[in-house]
Amino acid sequence: MKELLLNPVACHFAGRLWLQGPDDRFMGIGRLELLEKIGALGSISKAAQAMGMSYKKAWDLVNSMNAQVTTPLVSTQTGGSHGGGAVLTPAGQQVLEAFGAVQVRFQEFMRQETERLLG
Amino acid sequence: MKELLLNPVACHFAGRLWLQGPDDRFMGIGRLELLEKIGALGSISKAAQAMGMSYKKAWDLVNSMNAQVTTPLVSTQTGGSHGGGAVLTPAGQQVLEAFGAVQVRFQEFMRQETERLLG
User: Fold this and answer.
1) What is the dihedral of CA A98, A101, A107, A111, to 10 degrees?
2) How far is the alpha carbon of B61 from chain A, nearest alpha carbon, in Å?
3) What are φ and ψ of residue A15, in 5° steps?
4) Does A30 lie at the interface with B, CB-CB under 8 angstroms?
5) pLDDT digit string (tens) for B14-32?
6) N or C: which terminal CB in chain A sees fewer CB atoms within 10 Å?
7) Cβ of B80: how many Cβ atoms within 10 Å?
8) The CATH number, out of the four listed (1.10.10.10, 3.30.565.10, 1.20.1250.20, 3.90.70.10), of the domain defined by the range A21-118
9) pTM, whole model, 2 decimals?
């Protein structure tokens, strides 16, 4: 395969991986990054801003995630629609760690496949 | 994680994987299916039709793939723009097999990650 490609050194596997639930996606790289940013910034609106995402979109994602679990991943505090803070719950932290590890293994899978095909 | 999800049995990892070249995607699941159909049907227009894809889109994908390799993957025969047949070259067959195997390993990776998280 290496000899077939004009520029094999510039080629690599890329991809996307997500956990699909019965009705909706549960967790993918965007949702994972959103959880990470909420944990770091303590606010859904700040997390949305940091990702260049609308506040509505971020809320929709949080609601979609929270609707698929037995314990919310993100807990919001009172203080008006944009005013209150948000924190990752222990369940949210658990999801962040578990799916972060999946993404690391996926990166490693892609690295190995690139090496196998073109190394 | 299993106990956290409302409906873990209905959840599974899904994803997309492609070989990214320096300027364009080289090979992904859609391009792979197109090569397969061209090989089976002997025609780019029939392959496009079978995939519900426009003839132009199919040609653009074939041109993109052929432009990134030292030997064309698809060889077209004369007979007018829609009239001539198309065949997979040995290089095209080689790509089909190699990337088909990558996709099988990717499916297996996703199955294992689903099992690891929710099994």
Assistant:
1) -140
2) 16
3) -175, 180
4) no
5) 999 999 999 999 999 999 9
6) C
7) 6
8) 1.10.10.10
9) 0.91
